[in-house]
Amino acid sequence: MKIKTVGIDLAKNVFQVHGVDERGKTVLRKQIKRDQMASFFINLPTCLIGMEACGSAHYWARKLQAMGHTVHLMAPQFVKPYVKSNKNDAADAEAICEAVGRPSMRFVPIKNIEQQSVLSLHRVRQGFVKARTAQANQIRGLLGEFGLVVPQGIAYVTQRVPELIEDALIELPGSFRILITRLLEHLQLLHRQIDEIEAQIKAWHRSNEASQRLTQVPGVGPITATALVATIGDAKNFDNGRQLAAWLGLVPRQHSSGGKRNLLGMSKRGDAYLRTLLIHGARSVIYRAMQKADPSNWVFNVASRRNKNIAAVALANKTARTIWALLIHDRQFRLDYRAANAAA
């Protein structure tokens, strides 16, 4: 019996495979070790393969596609409803096999090696930024135990703490001064590592035409643009800009019933890193708009009548839809686009 659809439950060393024929009857239920994956699927007739979008999923998707198979990745929360009774590897593989054949299933775009490489830079940079913030807070906390209060902000730590350590009039043990000096050196090391990774990201940004076009949008810099281009990949995966905004979690969460609409706060679905970058960029645009106080500016009007946080999410939503339009139509951003259309 020919295998039509296969579900793979990925793992580190042992993978569970579940296959069905064109009638949906189970014809394959097997455990495969990592080193057996390539030889097993290269000898398997071309079929539809489904996997959850988890660790190593994009790697195996590219490998299996190169063998001629059709591969789809799915978010784990969309596969969960198809798991029957108890959870185990065999049940998960069966659920994946069932979910990938659903006509309404939403799939995750498969990333290429270049996209994964750029996103790795972003993830490492994000980790270094968190470590730098934690290190600065630790230094402030230790100094606070000795009655030395440093204002919040990494800039204050790097500027004022060395002066406090070198001040002989302040009563501090010598071992404590050495400890703080060591922590400051670690903080400076994190600074340098972040700067080096940002230089790599900006170098990739200068070599990518789509990323350069996105930086023309207010509130989008090289960091945000490169992360968006590498994550979204082909904008044709989304039917419209609203789908992209919803995919990033920038739309209201619904809890409606009986024909009554009940909209809550933003859904926060999707990539939290991208959503954070877009919202922080929107805050910068709102800050400048409030300084100019132009009544004809949409951003100023929204920020004036609503809470600044609501305005930031609304602008981030609008930015996401603008980014989709630029990518899908291969256009340059124009501030006077609406005015030009109205004149025409």
UniProtKB/TrEMBL annotation:
Annotated Transposase IS110-like N-terminal domain ranges read: 6-145
**InterPro entries of this UniProt entry?**
Transp_IS110-like_N (IPR002525), Transpos_IS110 (IPR047650), Transposase_20 (IPR003346)
Keywords linked to the UniProt accession: Coiled coil
**Is Transmembrane helix one of the keywords?**
no
Q: Which GO terms describe its molecular function?
A: DNA binding; transposase activity
Q: Name one GO biological process term.
A: DNA transposition
Q: Which residues form a coiled coil?
A: 180-207
What is the recorded name of this protein?
A: IS110 family transposase
Specify the species.
Answer: Pollutimonas nitritireducens
